[in-house]
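Batch job 17 of 40 flagged for manual review because the log was empty.
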Amino acid sequence: MKKRYYPYSEFIRDLNRLIKIIDKPFDTILLIARGGLSIAHILSEYYNIRAIYSINTIGYNNRDKLNKIEIFNLPNLKNSKRVLIVDDIVDSGDTLYAILKLLKKKYPNIIFYSASIFYKKTAKITPTWYINQTEDWIDFFWSVDLKDKNDFNDR
């Protein structure tokens, strides 16, 4: 699998593109930590949404996909009507699929949308909105830039 570095300049460009294609209203942003953190922050500022929540999952150990996805820290969404779930990439689709299944069961009256910067066409689910289709492993700037400058392993 080919690796690709994804810089901040492309991230901002792609978030602007994402904002232009999101064509349904939402009152809540639910980010999948950690990949959705930066996306959710910027979208919440742009849309002036303060109802922003995080859900945690573990599906990978570095580049190795785990057999089972752990979902934890499920937020209370009882006051939400339309929720936008954001993540950096829909790779296999297992994480987004599992989260949506859990959330739709717990909150059957909420409408859920999803958005990501990257999407792999082999994923079992397609996000409502995405910007880039890829087959590459993406090294996001937030994962590598500081490590290139500061060796955290030596601390």
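Reviewer: the log was empty due to a logging misconfiguration, but the result itself is present. The chain has a mean pLDDT of 92. Unflagging and moving on to job 18.
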